[in-house]
Amino acid sequence: MPLLEAAYINHNGKRLDFGKGDGLFLNEHDLLNFNWNVQTRGNRIIGVNRKGVREHTLPLVIAARTEAQAFKLANDLFSICEADLTENQKGRLVVNGYNLKCFIRGQDYSEWSESRKCLNISAKVIRDSIWYKTLEPITFNADGLPQIEIIEEGDLNGASPAGGAASESWTSGEKGYFHGYPYDYPSTLEEYVFNNDTGVPLSWKAIIYGAASSITFDIGDHTYEVPNVTLQDGERLEITAKEALDEKTVYKISASGARTNCFANRSTTSYLFEPIPTGKMLIRSANNLIWRLIPIVERSTPEWL
Predict the structure, then answer these.
(1) What is the pLDDT of the chain when averaged over all its residues?
(2) Tens digits of per-residue pLDDT, 235-288?
(3) Residue 52: partners with Cβ closer than 8 Å, 6 or more residues away
């Protein structure tokens, strides 16, 4: 399956682009192929799932203008991937706005060409998750947002369509979302009609800013509650509900960046990590809650663009 443009970004934000004229290219590969696991009993299918570790091969080609450029690309490819492995932190492949958390755990090399400008590399990708991308965030009561720095990963703290790393500021009182989407969210938004037209339930992340207590919000007919957490000014609560990736977390983050696991503080009467259903629904909160909802699409393979 040919793919001319893609990228790999390691956990430190170092990026390698494939097919953008810099001399590193991606040949035909199986990265976008998918297969669900099938569970059987008594010659009958009883379930399907996408869990498990999977491996892929990325056939890469260095075709540089100079020997120096070729050697730099080879060295960068090694060091960027090696950093993830030595620190046991996954990087991510980015294709058509979708991210795949993974390791590039090995590289097999051909001989250099006679000009020492070309090299074939077989990169070994291993992953235990699926593709995902963030949709446009919805911000509620933005007039109350403190001036904060948003560091985008192309993953959960932002929604960069290309998955690139960027740094943006939100200034209290500004209208419109910090990344400049073609939407102008009212700065006092307390409820919002959301249309999930993807055809599948969505995972999500919520970021609630202090000061706040008895945290409650509704998405459609479902109530989400973390009643036993109090946030002071400068603190925030981050709830991650990535269903297909089986990532369900609740963290309180202090003004200094210290993280406290608040998973046990969630409500026991209403499931906190309920996916966002399909169709149109009202999203609302009370008590002037200052918060941001980030819907997340999870797919077995990226959309074709």
Answers:
(1) 82
(2) 999 999 987 767 899 999 999 999 999 999 999 899 999 999 999 999 998 778
(3) 37, 128
Strand order in the sheet with 222-231: 191-196, 279-285, 212-219, 222-231
Give me the residue label for tokens 């945290």.
215
**SS3 assignment, position 71:** helix
Residue 58: beta bridge partners? 123
- As a whole number of angstroms, the distance between CA 147 and CA 178 comes to 11
- For the chain, what's the residue count? 305
The residue extents of the domains of the chain are 6-40+49-129, 133-299
Residue 183 has pLDDT above 60, yes or no: no
- Cβ 237 vs Cβ 262: under 8 Å: yes
Report if pTM > 0.85: no
- Asked if the 133-299 domain carries CATH number 2.60.120, the reply is yes
Decide: 234 and 210 in contact? Cβ < 8 Å. Answer: yes
The first and second tokens of residue 282, run together, are 């009202």
Classify each residue of 155-192 as buried b or exposed e, where b means 16 or more C-beta atoms within 10 Å of its C-beta. Answer: bbbbbbbebbbeeeebeeeeebbbbeeeeebebebeeb
Query: Tokens 């390698």 label which residue?
Result: 16
Residue the block writes with tokens 């593709």: 131
Q: Do domains 6-40+49-129 and 133-299 have the same CATH topology?
A: no
| Residue 219 scores a pLDDT above 70 | yes
- What's the CATH number for 6-40+49-129? 2.40.30
In contact, 125 and 55? CB cutoff 8 Å: yes
- Other Cβ atoms less than 10 A from the Cβ of 35: the count is 8
Tens-place pLDDT, residues 204-215: 999 999 889 889
Q: 121 or 192: which carries more pLDDT confidence?
A: 121
